[in-house]
Amino acid sequence: MTTLAVARVLAILVAVVTTFGALLADFVIPATAAQHMRNDRWPPHAKFHDAQYIVMSILLGVIALALLVTPWDRQQFAVFTACAILATPWLGLLGALLFPGTAIHDPEFHNRPVAGLHPQVFLSAILLVLLLVAVVFTATY
Known about the structure:
141 residues; 5 helices; elongated; single chain; mainly alpha
């Protein structure tokens, strides 16, 4: 398998997580949805922005998947572009922590750390590392 093929597989994995992750975690899975869209303490505008994030993640994941599974003359460019698109919501999650008054979770919830990090931060880091590996593999193709 070539390094470009490995890069595509890694990016496709991240694309699938990006496409379905926010929808499942914030709306479908009861334990985590209770902290987000199913949280009765959240005002409607907060739920609106979470729903906006869910829809944006789905759209970005689908766009990246289309780039990754469609044959292109410039496959390297398609993989680079897909990786940039896929990094957007995960970098956005990390960047949101820099805004005043934000928190990775509401005070009434405790999420067990994974490797010392909040699970969402840990997942973001893992997926961003996979995308970085995909970019490096694509660059060395």
